[in-house]
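Hi V.,

Quick status before I head out on leave. The structure for the redesign project is tokenized and pasted below; the design run finished overnight.
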């Protein structure tokens, strides 16, 4: 687990550094395309700095029903785009908590929160999503954007998600799922950071959430990636994530139609 975390953390630190010079995303097309195609629209354009360093695969807050005064927790909050959108929704009486394991991401999120005037609402905490530094039953919403697939212990993440939610609290997660990927992809450590090798099947993902005690679990949106989208997902950051052209060429035909972005929702009983 330590090696996977270290690989992912280093990869995202490199990707963030490159994002300061150009837009890009590991889990989808360029950051500009994330804004356009993942359901963000104008609300993300309001936070261009954070959007330019967005590495997500969807918009977990779209139609989420977050209300003023609530507490939102973002697992793997990155540079803070979803934190900023959540802060707008909860308002001055609410609270937004971001947990990330990568110091450069935490620093970027703090800057973006301060620049947007949400420094008093948004709190950043360093930690792992398998062991959240968050009290039991303390949040109304858990969100996450293309992060849980990176965890080598997804059952632990799902248990933590259930633990930190208040009774009746809800979650909205955008993530990558995959079916029967070839060994060339599964065994390549850098492919983990590119949001591919760590992805499980949709059935296993939903089953893991339910096994953790969560209810009303369902997929509300699904986009199965075609060849061009997978190329954008993997090849766009070949240098950042240590992938090479041969890996992409060998694995591409085998993964087309087997990798999808999904939005999963549910609640604590």
């Amino acid at each position: 687990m330590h090696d996977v975390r270290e690989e992912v953390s280093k990869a995202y630190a490199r990707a963030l550094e490159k994002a300061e010079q150009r837009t890009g995303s590991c889990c989808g097309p360029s950051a500009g395309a994330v804004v356009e195609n993942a359901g963000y629209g104008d609300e993300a354009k309001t936070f261009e700095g954070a959007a330019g360093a967005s590495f997500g695969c969807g918009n977990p807050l779209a139609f989420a029903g977050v209300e003023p005064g609530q507490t939102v927790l973002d697992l793997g909050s990155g540079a803070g785009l979803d934190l900023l959108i959540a802060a707008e929704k909860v308002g001055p009486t609410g609270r937004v908590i971001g947990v990330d394991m990568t110091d450069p991401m935490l620093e970027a999120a703090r800057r973006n929160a301060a620049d947007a005037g949400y420094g008093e609402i948004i709190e950043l905490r360093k930690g792992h999503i398998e062991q959240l530094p968050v009290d039991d039953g303390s949040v109304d919403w858990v969100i996450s954007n293309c992060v849980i697939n990176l965890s080598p212990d997804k059952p632990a993440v799902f248990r933590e998600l259930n633990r930190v939610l208040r009774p009746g609290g809800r979650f909205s997660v955008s993530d990558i799922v995959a079916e029967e990927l070839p060994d060339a992809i599964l065994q390549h450590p850098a492919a983990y950071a590119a949001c591919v090798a760590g992805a499980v099947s949709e059935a296993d993902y939903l089953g893991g959430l339910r096994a953790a005690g969560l209810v009303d679990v369902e997929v509300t949106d699904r986009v199965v990636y075609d060849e061009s989208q997978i190329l954008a997902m993997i090849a766009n950051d070949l240098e950042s994530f240590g992938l090479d052209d041969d890996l992409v060429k060998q694995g591409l035909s085998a993964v087309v139609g087997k990798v999808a972005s999904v939005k999963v929702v549910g609640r604590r009983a």
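Above is the designed sequence. The first strand starts at residue 71 and ends at 75.

G. will cover questions while I'm gone.

Best,
W.
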